[in-house]
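Homework help board

Subject: predicted structure for assignment chain

Our instructor gave us this sequence and asked us to write out the predicted structure in token form, then describe one feature. I got the tokens but I'm not sure how to describe them. Can anyone check?
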Amino acid sequence: MAAGIAALLPAFASAAEPVVSVWYRGNPAGTPRQSDLGAIRALGFTGVTWPRASPAGVDELMRLAGLVGLKVLIADGPPAPVDGRSASRPPSRVDIAVASATPGMISALAWRAVAHGARVIAFDGGTRTGAGLEEPDGSLKPWARAAINVSRQLTANANLANAMKPGPGLIFTPAPPPALDVVLLDADRSWVIVATNTSGSPISSRVRLPAGTPYALWVSWLEGSPLAMISEPAGPRWMLTMEPRSARVYIIDKVMK
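My token output:
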């Protein structure tokens, strides 16, 4: 089971199933509240991460979470937030601390971690109670909107996410800086390519895909827009320019011979 997770609801049958959760500490601290959990589920998250340091509320948390359809993850220690570098070598559960990440960086960190094998993303709003999703006036915080987008994108395509495994390597010209990460994933009948930039500046590179990989038309997983690469005998060439703190994810069906 996922590293750092001490207990899961029985419904969480596979470590490969994508789970996007928020750290939830009760309201008041240590006491779960069904209205909080229902709101978390309605926003599109599929789980809550609860600190083991609050054991008294675990049984009630699991009961209430089961009523609203949330998975429960019990974390042994405090959040261990990833950054651009550590997201490329993620544990099974990745913590993203929103206090240190702009809304744009949230998408880049989450998709980079997923591209490198993470299947549980836990967003930490840094609050002592609740999940920290809302402003005092009840509106959603900007980071919450970004996290919700990640959750909905992954859970709406859970079968595709489950199927993803490392694909062939890519060739870059020039060699990319560490802030740029581009990964080709094999998803059985499809190819998925995930590009992320965790720096504060645009980055450009020419990316060579393996020979035989389709060059057009790739479709954005995030927004549905098309992408056509340059067809060459050595393999498709992608003239890539990544905006600061951004993620781009594209999908294409494999050519069946």
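Reply (TA_rk): Your tokens look well-formed. For the description, you could write something like this. The two ends are 37 Å apart (CA to CA). That's the kind of observation they're looking for.
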